[in-house]
Specification:
The protein has about 160 residues and is α+β, with helices and mostly antiparallel strands. The protein has four helices and twelve strands, in the order ββαβββαβββαβββαβ.
Length: about 160
């Protein structure tokens, strides 16, 4: 993990932590810089200037002081991490969706629930008998069956 300030140009990152006082975190949240969001660094920081990022279809200029408060994990470096089915991820661990498998109807239903590539997921709770699994996805909780979770290949992150 590193700060957004250390980000390299043309690389994708997932925001894992936003630090700072309440006013700063509120302002960053209003801009869309929240935990779990994917950002692409367009121009990295150069000698005292800020950086330009791509977030949710728009370009944003971020000052150095703001970028220092945002902790990110590189998606490009996660290529070396092996993929696992979501059923193998322990409770309270975080992961990123890598691929959806199964037939077309299952993949479409999972994507309709918000489980798309590079989405940050936290395994929130598992029922006593192992089915269903409760996830935290995009700021809401989602329960899915274990057989559906087996169709979601993920890469585990250390947050």
């Amino acid at each position: 993990m590193a700060t957004l300030l250390e980000g390299k140009a043309q690389q994708k990152y997932i925001i894992t932590k936003v630090a700072g006082d309440h006013a700063l975190t509120t302002r960053l949240a209003e801009l869309g810089l929240r935990i779990g969001k994917m950002v692409t660094v367009i121009n990295s920081a150069k000698s005292g200037s800020g950086l330009v990022i791509y977030l949710a279809g728009q370009r944003l200029a971020v000052s150095q002081s703001m970028a220092e408060q945002i902790t990110v994990t590189s998606l490009d470096e996660s290529e070396n991490i092996p993929t696992l089915p979501l059923t193998n991820i322990p409770v309270h661990s975080s992961c990123v969706v890598y691929q959806l498998t199964g037939d077309k109807a299952v993949r479409k239903r999972l994507m309709d629930m918000g489980l798309t590539r590079n989405t940050l997921i936290q395994v929130y709770h598992v029922a006593p008998l192992g089915d269903p699994i409760e996830l935290q996805v995009r700021g809401y909780k989602l329960s899915i069956r274990k057989r559906d979770a087996a169709n979601i290949l993920v890469k585990e992150l250390q947050l």
